[in-house]
Protein: Transmembrane protein 214
Organism: Cacopsylla melanoneura
Amino acid sequence: MLQSLVSNHPEVLYDNFDLITDLIQSYSNQNKIGISTAIMWVLAQAANFNFKHGLQVWRTFMLSFIEQKNYTRYSLDYLKHLFSRSHNRQRDALSIPEYLECVDLLFEYYNIPKSCLTELQSSCKLFRERTSLKDAGKYFLMVLEEKIPQPSSTLYRQEMVAFLYSLLREDPYACFQHWRDVYANNLPESVLLLRLIYKDWQNIQSNEILPYKETIFTVETFNFVNQTLYKKKMQSEGLDECNRIVQTITTKMT
């Protein structure tokens, strides 16, 4: 009966947030963890028919316990099963702001045990792959200039760079234009994205995942900017590595 109630009326959960949270917390010690996870399992039934309800349950109830060793893996496993049960990718797609908010929550607000970092990376990839990249060009600069430079963990930065590459592939003309405009002022961040492009260069050439002429034009523009900075004898962080990658890609293009 409780399972049916949660599945059909998930608003009951949110209306009783404090009560349910206190109930889970009261059974959170090692000897009673089976009871608290059983309660979480009942809450998870909200996801059976509605992906967004399931995600809201995770954010509202499970995320607040993710730092506790008894619950970290359970919370991350729930995400994996939530995404696997959702088959309507268009209906259940996250917006870019929703994706950024979820990843920020995982990395910036909670201290997740190191033993679960692999699951954490997998969870972020699930969010990324389920995100609608509509308006990719609109968010490219924000991720490049605001998200990647944050003094955060290496894993967070890796996830943001991977997402930045997804935006670039979705709307390459707009994103390349934005990138060329700000490249000279964002060399340390540009290094990270250039590494991905270099690593994926064979795929770019053979499968045209990026428009080849636009990519070449961007690389040539970066090369010109690099040489201009060298002539001005400007010591810019990231310039040397950017130049090495650009020169290597230029060689591969000829």
